[in-house]
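pinned: reference chain
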Amino acid sequence: MLTSVVAGYSSGGYYMRREGKSWIKTMFLTATLFPTTIGVSAFVLNFGAKYYDAQSFIPFGTMVILVALWIFISVPLTVVGTIFGRHWNGAPDVPCRISLVPRHLPDKPWYMSPTVVACAGGLLPFASIFIEIYFLFTSFWHYKYYYVYGFLLMTYVILLLVTSCVTIVTAYFMLNTEDYRWQWMAFFSGASTAVYVYLYSIYYYYTRTQMSGFLQTSFYFGYVGMFCLGLGILCGTFRFVSSRLVSSRPDLTLLASFV
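pinned: its structure tokens
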């Protein structure tokens, strides 16, 4: 919750650099969109646990405390961060003049369409964390102790490196086809990693677990869905930042291609 000030600072600054006018709406979405999605999902799953008298039920008082921390700590820090970002990090940084008239996009092969590129962009990052995802699921759903936190950190670093290199190369190919719409392509190509993780979770559920019934099924897919949502936003944001970095450092494209 304390890092909410970082979220407000980065979103507010970037929105102002793009000369946005509705910065209050951006601030509101930054403070509420992701926490509300996770909170509502957790509340629904918690009511199901209460209905079945499961041990995983979180007391209502604890949930109220978490909501109060979000309202009185996270939201104000997001507002403060957005205000600072607008004034200290909102100067336009466009390296050249941009025409207000959209340019016609030439025809390109089907495999270079944004949809195909976004789907293919998540394969390599998923392959780099596939083994670790198996051990994480085993720890979560088979009640095994998890010890290799150092290896988990190394896997996380590898995920970020592979994600950044793949997005730089895909953005380079898209710009070579004169498709300047790289922003959302970069984000969704990173977020597609979470889609592959969720598809793997479906396979894991039917082949590695003996779960059955509404409660176990809803808990499994509900919490895995929240995990994949956070992972998708993480990878998508990192890919977008990596693509923007290449605009100021073209030599990174050659380095990413080599890696």
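why pinned: The longest helix spans residues 213-248. Residues 1-91 form one domain.
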